[in-house]
Write a structure and sequence with these properties.
CATH topology of chain A: Rossmann fold
Chains: A alpha/beta (about 240), B mainly alpha (about 325), C mainly alpha (about 300)
Helix content of chain A: 25-40%
Structural class of chain A: alpha/beta
Largest sheet of chain A: 6 strands, mixed
Strand order of the largest sheet of chain A: 6-7-8-3-9-10
Strand content of chain C: under 5%
Number of strands of chain A: 10
Largest sheet of chain C: 2 strands, antiparallel
Strand order of the largest sheet of chain C: 1-2
CATH topology of chain C: ABC transporter involved in vitamin B12 uptake, BtuC
Strand content of chain A: 25-35%
Number of helices of chain C: 12
CATH class of chain A: Alpha Beta
Structural class of chain C: mainly alpha
CATH superfamily of chain A: P-loop containing nucleotide triphosphate hydrolases
Shape of chain A: globular
Number of domains of chain C: 1
Number of strands of chain C: 2
Distance between the termini of chain C: 57 Å
Helix content of chain C: over 70%
Oligomer: heterotrimer
CATH architecture of chain C: Orthogonal Bundle
Distance between the termini of chain A: 36 Å
CATH class of chain C: Mainly Alpha
CATH architecture of chain A: 3-Layer(aba) Sandwich
Order of helices and strands of chain A: EEEHEEHEHHHEHEHEEHH
C-alpha cells in the first residue's frame, strides 16, 4: 500500500535516515519506536513529501510519489498528525475542524457558501464528540491544554478520511486519562475502515495495545521489523531503543 | 481570539443603517453628503486591505488598485469622452482584478515584511509611471473627470446620483464581503495566518487562497477608486503614492478585521476627523492619527470594532 | 564617451546618500526585527537639526568650515536623544510580536514625527547652502562637478567602515551579532539584550540623522523630505536583503548606477527603474541578495 525503498536523507554530515526500506500493506497497523533523533519523524516527513530524500523512492499504491509535496500527497489519501500539533492556534476548535471538513469536501476555493452550514456543523459535532472535544468547541485553541491540541491535531487528519494515516506521537502530552479513551475509540474505527495506520510512539503500552507490527529505528536505520512482541523482546532493540541492558 | 463572523444575510442593523444613509441627503449639506460618499468609496478599498489582513498579510501598496480603478474612469472620461458609469465601473473592476491576478502570482510568494515591501514597490512603480508619462496620464496635473452619466442619463444633480450609486454599490460590496468572510475561503485565509503547514496537510493550498483573496481585494479596491474618481472629478498620481496606501492600512488596522462593516465605519470616521482636523489644526492631525494607531496597537490589537461587538455565531447544538 | 564618468560619479554620490539611511534601516531590522518606516522622518529631523545648528552657531558665516562639525554634532545629538527615546517608549512594547506589528508601530511613529517636525520648525523651507558652496567645484573629464556630494561619499564610506569595524572588532559588535542571529539564545547567554537594542537603535538613528544633516546643504529642508527617501531605502534593503549591511551597500550601488544610467539614457524611467530593480531581484531571490533564508519549522 505504502512504503519506502532504499530511502536516505542526509543533512550535511548527518544521515538522519540511512538506506531504509519499509513496506506496509493495506489495513496494517504499524508502530514505530526508537529513541529521539533516530529518524522516525524524518521518515514521516519524507513519506509525506515535506522533505525530499537524498536517494531512494516513496511508493504509494504502486505509484512513485517521490518529489510530490504534502498538499498533493494528502489529496491522494495520506494524512498525517504531528509531534508538535499543527493546528490553528488563534481559531476555535470548531473552526479548526470545519476548515478540515471544508478542505476534505473540496470547498477550499468556495468563497460564497457559508462555512457554518448545517451539514458541516453536524459532521463537525460528530467528529468533536468522537474525540471528546465537544465541550471545548468554542474554545480558542491557544487556550487548550497541550493534550487537547494533540487530540485536535489527530482529529484533523482523521477528518480527511485517509487511506493511510501517519501519526507522530499521538499520545505524547495527552493526559493518562484521555490517552486510552481516545485511542480506544480511534483505533478500532480505523481498523473497521481498513485505514493503513502507521504511528510513532514512545509509550510502549500504546504500541503493545494497538499495533500488530513494530518497526524499531536506531541511528537512521531499521534494526528490527516484525510482530510487536517479538520486536520488543529482541536484545538489540532493548539495548538501543529501550536503553535496557 | 477567533475572528468574529457575520452570517451571510445582512442583519437588520445594517439594512437600517443603509436606509438611514439613503435619506440623509434630505437633511444634510451637500458637503457632508459628499464626504460620506467619499468615505464609503474609500471604505471599499479598506475592505480590500482587510481581506488580506485576515491572512496576516499587510498590503502597503493597495493604492495601486485604487489608482488603477480611478484612472480607468479618468481615461475613459478624459481621453475618450466616455463618462458612462455603467461602462467605466465594470471596466475598472475587471482591469483591477486582472492586474491583481497578474501581480498576485508574484506577490503571493511572499509573506510578512517582504509582502508589505514588495506591494509598496509595485504601487510606487505605478506612481512613477503616472508621473513621468505625461501624454499617457497627464503627469502630475492628472486628468479631469467630467461628463458623468448613469445609464445614458446626465442628471441635473450628479453629486446626488453619485451618492446613491456609491450607496448601492457599497451595499453590494458589503454583501459580497460578508459572504466571503463567512465562506471556507474566508476561514482558510485566517488559517493562513496561523499555520500554513497544516493547510498543506489538509490538501489545500495557501497560495491559492491568498491569490483568490488578492484578486477579490484588488477588484473591490479598483471599484472604490473608480467611484472616487467620479466623486472628486479628478485623478492624479498621488492616488498611487505610498502614503495613500498607508491611509488605507491605517483605517483597516483601526477598524480591525472582525467584520465587513468595520472598514466602512472606520473610513467614515477617518474622513470626518481628517476633514475637520485639517481645518482647525493642520499640523497636528497626523500626530493624532499616529497616537490613535499606537493606542490600538498596544491595547486593542484586534481593532476598535471589537470594542462594540462580541458577536460570535454559535451553532445550535452549542446553545443548549 | 563622456557620459560614463557622469554615470559613475552621479551614481556613486546618489548611492552614498542612500546608504546612510538604508544601512540604518537594515541594521535596525537585523537586531530588532522591526522595519522602521519612521526612518525617513529621522533623516528629516537630522536635516532640520543640522540646519538649525548652522543657522544658530555659524550664523552669517555659513561659509566657514565650522559648519561641517556642526552637522556631525547634529547627527550625534539626534542619535543620542531621539534614538533611545523612541526605542524605550514605543518600540520596546512590540518586541517578539509579529513583524507586521512592528511595521505598523513605526508607521504610527512616522505620522507622529511628520507633525512634530511641522510643529517645531514650521512649514517654511530652511536653506543652508553654505557648506555646499564652501566646497566649490572641480573639473573631472572636462565636466564641472560640485565637490560637496563627494564629501557625502566619503562620509558614507567612513560610516560603512565604522559599522564594519564595530561589528567585527568590538565587544559590542560581537554581542550584536549574537542578538541578530538568535535573540532568545543571546538573552539566555547573558547578553543584555535590551541594552543592545537601545544602542543598536541609537546607532541606526544616528546614521539616518547623519544622512539628513549632511544632505541639508544640498537641498531645501522642508516637511515631507523624508517621504521619498524612505521608499527608496526600502527598495535598497529589499534588494540587498533585510539585515545585511553589505547588502545595503551593494543595493545602493546598483540602484545609484542604474538610476544614473537611466537619467542619461532614458530619463522617463529614472524613478521607475529603482522599483523595477527591486521587483526583479525579489523575483529571482525572494530574500534579497544577502538576506537570510527562513528556516522551516517542523
Amino acid at each position: 500500500m505504502i512504503g519506502v525503498q532504499n530511502v536516505s536523507r542526509a543533512f550535511d554530515m548527518l544521515r538522519a535516515v540511512d538506506d531504509v526500506s519499509l513496506s506496509v500493506d493495506e489495513g496494517e497497523t504499524v508502530g514505530i519506536i526508537g529513541t529521539n533523533g533516530s529518524g522516525k519523524t524524518t521518515l514521516l516527513n519524507l513519506i509525506t513529501g515535506y522533505l525530499q530524500p537524498t536517494s531512494g523512492h516513496i511508493v504509494f499504491q504502486g505509484m512513485d510519489i517521490t518529489g510530490l509535496g504534502p498538499q498533493r500527497i494528502t489529496t491522494l489519501g495520506v494524512a498525517r498528525s504531528f509531534q508538535i500539533p499543527q493546528v490553528y492556534a488563534g481559531l476555535t476548535v470548531l473552526d479548526n475542524v470545519l476548515i478540515a471538513i471544508a478542505a476534505h469536501s473540496g470547498r477550499s476555493a468556495d468563497f460564497w457558501t457559508p462555512m457554518y452550514r448545517r451539514d458541516c456543523l453536524i459532521t463537525a459535532e460528530e467528529v468533536l464528540a468522537r474525540f471528546g472535544l465537544r465541550d471545548q468547541a468554542m474554545r480558542t485553541v491557544s487556550n487548550l491544554p497541550e493534550g487537547g491540541c494533540k487530540i485536535l491535531d489527530v482529529a484533523l487528519s482523521v477528518v480527511l478520511e485517509p487511506k493511510v494515516l501517519l501519526m507522530d506521537e499521538p499520545t505524547s502530552g495527552v493526559s493518562a486519562r484521555d490517552k486510552f479513551s481516545v485511542m480506544d475509540t480511534l483505533m478500532p474505527e480505523l481498523k473497521e475502515h481498513r485505514v493503513t495506520t502507521i504511528f510513532v510512539e514512545h509509550d510502549l503500552e500504546i504500541i503493545e495495545r494497538y499495533a500488530a507490527r513494530a518497526v524499531a529505528f536506531d541511528a537512521g536505520k531499521i534494526v528490527a521489523d516484525g510482530p510487536v512482541a517479538d520486536v520488543l523482546a529482541r536484545p538489540e532493540v532493548r539495548r538501543a531503543v529501550l536503553g535496557v541492558n | 481570539m477567533s475572528e468574529i463572523t457575520t452570517s451571510p444575510s445582512l442583519p437588520l442593523a445594517v439594512i437600517a443603517a443603509f436606509a438611514v444613509m439613503a435619506v440623509l441627503p434630505l437633511f444634510l449639506s451637500d458637503w457632508i453628503v459628499f464626504l460620506i460618499a467619499l468615505a464609503l468609496a474609500k471604505g471599499a478599498v479598506v475592505l480590500g486591505v482587510v481581506l488580506l489582513l485576515r491572512g496576516g498579510l499587510i498590503s502597503f501598496g493597495h493604492a495601486l488598485y485604487f489608482a488603477t480603478g480611478a484612472y480607468t474612469v479618468g481615461f475613459l472620461a478624459n481621453r475618450f469622452g466616455i463618462g458612462e458609469a455603467l461602462v467605466a465601473l465594470p471596466l475598472a473592476i475587471i482591469i483591477s482584478a486582472v492586474a491583481a491576478a497578474a501581480l498576485g502570482v508574484l506577490l503571493t510568494r511572499f509573506r510578512g515584511i517582504y509582502f508589505a515591501m514588495l506591494s509598496l514597490a509595485l504601487s510606487m512603480i505605478l506612481y512613477t509611471v503616472l508621473i513621468k508619462f505625461y501624454d499617457f496620464s497627464g503627469g502630475t496635473d492628472g486628468l479631469s473627470v467630467r461628463g458623468f452619466t448613469l445609464a445614458g442619463v446626465t442628471s441635473a444633480d450628479p453629486a446626488l446620483v453619485q451618492y446613491y450609486l456609491v450607496l448601492v454599490l457599497t451595499a453590494a460590496v458589503v454583501y459580497v464581503g460578508a459572504r466571503f468572510l463567512a465562506s471556507p475561503l474566508g476561514y482558510l485565509m485566517q488559517a493562513v495566518r496561523y499555520n500554513e503547514i497544516r493547510i498543506e496537510y489538509l490538501g489545500a493550498s495557501a497560495s491559492h487562497a491568498i491569490l483568490a483573496s488578492y484578486v477579490v481585494s484588488g477588484a473591490v479596491s479598483g471599484l472604490g477608486g473608480a467611484l472616487v474618481a467620479y466623486l472628486v472629478g479628478h485623478v492624479s498620481p498621488e492616488l498611487a503614492f505610498w502614503v495613500s496606501s498607508g491611509d488605507f492600512v491605517f483605517v483597516a488596522v483601526l477598524g480591525g478585521t472582525g467584520s465587513v462593516f468595520a472598514p466602512l465605519v472606520g473610513s467614515i470616521a477617518f474622513e470626518f476627523v481628517k476633514n475637520y482636523a485639517l481645518k482647525f489644526s493642520p499640523n497636528t492631525w497626523q500626530l493624532t492619527l499616529g497616537v490613535f494607531l499606537l493606542l490600538v496597537i498596544y491595547f486593542q490589537p484586534q481593532g476598535l470594532w471589537t470594542l462594540f461587538t462580541r458577536l460570535r455565531v454559535k451553532p445550535r447544538w452549542l446553545r443548549r | 564617451m563622456n557620459i560614463l564618468p557622469i554615470i559613475l560619479l552621479d551614481g556613486i554620490t546618489f548611492a552614498s546618500w542612500l546608504f546612510l539611511v538604508s544601512a540604518g534601516i537594515t541594521f535596525i531590522f537585523g537586531v530588532l526585527r522591526i522595519l522602521n518606516v519612521a526612518h525617513g522622518s529621522l533623516y528629516a529631523i537630522g536635516a532640520y537639526v543640522g540646519a538649525t545648528f548652522i543657522i544658530r552657531f555659524a550664523g552669517q558665516e555659513q561659509h566657514s568650515w565650522l559648519t561641517l562639525p556642526l552637522l556631525l554634532l547634529a547627527a550625534i545629538v539626534v542619535g543620542l536623544t531621539l534614538g533611545p527615546l523612541i526605542e524605550r517608549l514605543f518600540l520596546r512594547r512590540v518586541y517578539g510580536k509579529d513583524e507586521v506589528i512592528g511595521l505598523l508601530t513605526t508607521f504610527a511613529l512616522f505620522l507622529i514625527l511628520e507633525d512634530v517636525v511641522r510643529l517645531i520648525w514650521g512649514i517654511e523651507p530652511y536653506l543652508v547652502e553654505g557648506p555646499f558652496r564652501l566646497l566649490g567645484r572641480v573639473r573631472i573629464a572636462g565636466i564641472a562637478f560640485a565637490v560637496y556630494p563627494f564629501l557625502l561619499t566619503i562620509i558614507a564610506i567612513l560610516a560603512g567602515l565604522l559599522l564594519w569595524f564595530i561589528i567585527h572588532h568590538t565587544w559590542f559588535g560581537r554581542q550584536v551579532t549574537c542578538v541578530i542571529t538568535d535573540r532568545e539564545m543571546a538573552g539566555a547567554l547573558g547578553i543584555n539584550v535590551p541594552r543592545i537594542d537601545l544602542m543598536a537603535f541609537a546607532l541606526g538613528t544616528f546614521l539616518a540623522a547623519l544622512g539628513g544633516a549632511f544632505t541639508a546643504p544640498m537641498m531645501s529642508v522642508e516637511p515631507g523630505m523624508g517621504l521619498s527617501v524612505i521608499v527608496l531605502a526600502f527598495a535598497v534593503v529589499g534588494i540587498g536583503g533585510l539585515g545585511s549591511i553589505g547588502g545595503a551597500a551593494l543595493g545602493c550601488t546598483i540602484v545609484g548606477l542604474a538610476r544614473a544610467t537611466a537619467i542619461q539614457l532614458f530619463p522617463e524611467i529614472e524613478l521607475f527603474v529603482i522599483y523595477a530593480l527591486m521587483v526583479a531581484v525579489l523575483l529571482w531571490r525572494p530574500q534579497g541578495l544577502f538576506g537570510a533564508i527562513e528556516l522551516r519549522k517542523i
